Amino acid sequence: MRKLVFSLIFLAIFLGTSGICKAGHGGPSEGRGRGRGWNDHGGRGRGRGGDQGHVGQFGLTMNYYRMSCRSDVEAIVRDIVWRNVSANPSLPAKLLRLHYHDCFVRGCDASILLDSTPGNQAEKDAGPNRSVTGYELIDFIKETLEKLCPGIVSCADIIALAARDAVSFQFQRPMWPVFTGREDGRISQSADAVAGLPSASADFATLLANFNSNGLDIVDLVTLSGAHTIGITHCSLVSRRLYNFTGNGDTDPTLNPEYVKTLKKICPLPIISSTLVEMDPQSSTNFDNHYYVALKQNEGIFQSDAALLTDPKSVALVQLFQNPSLFFESFARSMIKMGEVGVLINGQGEIRKNCRVVN
Questions:
Q1: Shortest CA distance to 118 belongs to which of 354, 359, 357?
Q2: This protein's superkingdom (predicted)?
Q3: Cβ pair 346, 102 in contact under 8 A
Q4: Which of 77, 91, 207, 353 lies 20 to 30 Å from 149, alpha-carbon distance?
């Protein structure tokens, strides 16, 4: 008990003292808000409704659609997502990744959903996004809501709600509150995705700079990396660490040797790019803190995972998150913050009728 209390105090110090970068992240002609986090309420409700007692720092609110749609928007999203997750346990990882990849490029504006046009290659067709899936479920949710409340619910809010609900299905309760009221962006360019998404081979300094540029800090970096506790990746993204780390036919020395043997059995030479491997060994369908347990054993699948062990503060957080309660609490806080990165509000965006095309 004393150890748990100490850990809670230590985490509270981290949460209270970690800096929030104020750098902008807006695109041409689109002003954007910045999210903070847990219980940052205040101000007044706006737009199409909302619970004026629960207002995010940058304009998003709880129960935003309560007054503008007779149907319970959040219950509809939850029911559709839970029904689909029940049939397909791989969906939580897919929808969580979709949410991340949206927010880290131009902010949480559903720009990742826009299709390419003859004159523009959109984000979803950029290299880092070609393996992103979940679009069809978002389309179905949007079509359902359009029949009930035409032109009311944004695609950006649907992504945020669907990601939360997909992860929450395992627990049968919401794992974090989702503030709503986002509008949809009108710009989607593949070059922005290439420049804005963290690389699986990035070192710690690069990762932290990337997070800082989105108003997120070291706690968010280590916490949100824990999303790798669910999902799979391709052997092609792991092969360099296994077979040619420095270009001399060697293995990444930071990898656990026993884990290397396991990975080489799953991903033998010649590498077949379609072969899949769990990101969290033996725990890829359970959302838990096992990622950090595996990380301490040098079983992080990506170089970006191993990078978390190269910074003293990061290592301290990895140790704290051996406690599942601390991880879940921090994950909730960081998801709220990430979900408010670069949001469009007050007419800065639009409410798309079809998530794949601008109005």
A1: 357
A2: Eukaryota
A3: no
A4: 91
Report d(CA 230, CA 354) in Å as an integer.
Answer: 29
Show Cβ contacts of residue 318 under 8 Å, excluding neighbours closer than 6 positions.
222, 292, 295, 296, 308, 309
> Which tens digit of pLDDT belongs to each residue from 123-182?
999 999 999 999 999 999 999 999 999 999 999 999 999 999 999 999 999 999 999 999
Rounded Cα gap, residues 110 and 275, in angstroms = 29
Q: So which residues are the catalytic ones?
A: 101
Q: Quote the tokens at residue 230.
A: 């669910």
Res 52: pLDDT = 44
Backbone angles phi, psi at 117, to 5 degrees: -125, 170
Torsion 165-320-108-274 (CA) sign: negative
pTM score, whole prediction? 0.87
Find where tokens 């040098």 sit. Answer: 298
In the structure encoding, which two tokens stand for residue 227, read together? 């999303």
DSSP class of residue 220 equals H
Bridge partners (DSSP) listed for residue 30: 27
Phi, psi (5° rounding) for residue 61?
-135, 165
- For 225, residues 6+ apart whose C-beta sits below 8 A from its C-beta are 291, 304, 305, 308
Q: Residue 145: name the closest of 154, 136, 134 by CA.
A: 154
- Nearest Cα to 184, choosing from 359, 351, 72? 351
